[in-house]
Amino acid sequence: MKRILSLLIIAGYYLLACQGNTPLPDNRSTQQQTVSNPNQTAGGQNVLSNTNGSIPEVFKQFNASLQIYTEGNFVVIKSNGLPDHKTPYYKDTQWASTMYEAYNGTNARFNLNPNRIASQNLTFKIPVNPVKASNTTATPLGPIGVSLNGVPFFNQYAAQRAPLTNEINSFDQYNGHPQQQGQYHYHVEPTYLTAKKGKDVLLGFLLDGFPVYGPTENGKTVSNSDLDAFHGHSHATKDYPNGIYHYHITSTDPYINGNGFYGSPGTVSQ
Ligand SMILES: [Zn+2]
Ligand SMILES: [Zn+2]
Fold first, then answer.
1. 178 CA distance to ligand 1 centroid (A)?
2. pLDDT, tens digit, for every residue of 62-101?
3. Residue 218 Cα to ligand 1 middle (Å)
4. Which ligand is nearest to the CA of 248?
5. Could you tell me if 164 and 187 are in contact, meaning their C-beta atoms sit under 8 angstroms apart?
6. Is the pLDDT of residue 3 over 70?
């Protein structure tokens, strides 16, 4: 399993490095791929359903459109990765034309990257009972976790582990953007979710099974200095009254995760 994970990480490094500002080598092939797959729908209306009543209660906060079940000591979350909110990155995608919305955010330097959203086959397998790792590992490029609407979380780096400085200008009005394979993702606060659910609530999980919370807590904005090197801390939350280690999303780099996974990561296949 470790070998598979390393292969995935290596593959992710080469295939999924987020190069939001680099034009696709062949933009047409992605267009054809999306059009030739008419069964995919945007807006969380995929055909999968939340089938298993035995999943821990907290996982029922995921969008009902995702398929979630337990497998041994893991929770399996399957997602097509399509955002359930409008975005300019649905531009020219006939199958999702009703989800297109021109950029209406506040970044004067916004620059639509050349990638367009495509349906994914993401399978996250994360520990049901996360534990601190004795040897912590860095997060890979590509998905490092999953938010409640099934969109993956990415880390604080662009390709070659460069800072996100340029990439940020391609984040849409909900702070997401697609990479070259059309995989939409959030490196920073998913503002559609925080506007809908609140800024002090559970927003998803990283691959190690530890939960990710929003940028405020007890009425205060969480800052990086409130958190440890992995970008989290431990205390009781509404979802975990007995206390749990959890990450917080902050408004400054490294945003979601710091020096890697606090726990032992599960896997993601795509
Ligand atoms: Zn990115
Ligand atoms: Zn906290």
1. 7
2. 999 999 999 999 999 999 999 999 999 999 999 999 999 9
3. 30
4. 2
5. yes
6. no
For 42-52, what is each residue's pLDDT tens digit? 443 333 344 44
Closest ligand (CA of 171): 1
Tell how far the Cα of 235 is from the centroid of ligand 1, in angstroms. Answer: 30
Q: What percent of the chain has pLDDT over 90?
A: 78
Q: For 182-221, how does the pLDDT look when each residue is reduced to its tens digit (9 = 90+)? A: 999 999 999 999 999 999 999 999 999 999 999 999 999 9
User: How many Å lie between the centroid of ligand 2 and the Cα of residue 234?
Assistant: 7
State how far the Cα of 58 lies from the Cα of 204, in Å rounded to an integer. 10
Give the list of residues 6+ apart from residue 113 with CB closer than 8 angstroms, or none: 20, 21, 89, 170, 177, 178
The runs of H, that is alpha helices, within the chain are 2-15, 27-35, 191-197
CA 210 to chain centre: 14
Token pair of 74 as six digits: 């893991």
Compute the distance between CA of residue 256 and CA of residue 210 in angstroms, rounded to an integer.
Answer: 12
Q: What does the angle CA 222 – CA 226 – CA 232 come to, to the nearest 5 degrees?
A: 90
Token reading at 8: 């995935």
Q: How many angstroms does the Cα of residue 226 sit away from the middle of ligand 2?
A: 9
Distance 246 CA to ligand 2 centre (A): 6
Predicted TM-score (pTM) of the model is 0.82
Sequence spans of domains, the chain: 2-185+263-269
* Residue 52 CA to ligand 1 centre (angstroms): 32
Residue 156: partners with Cβ closer than 8 Å, 6 or more residues away: 163, 164, 187, 253, 254, 255, 256, 257
What are 17's two structure tokens? 């490095």
Q: Give the environment of ion ligand 2: residues with CB less than 5 A.
A: 217
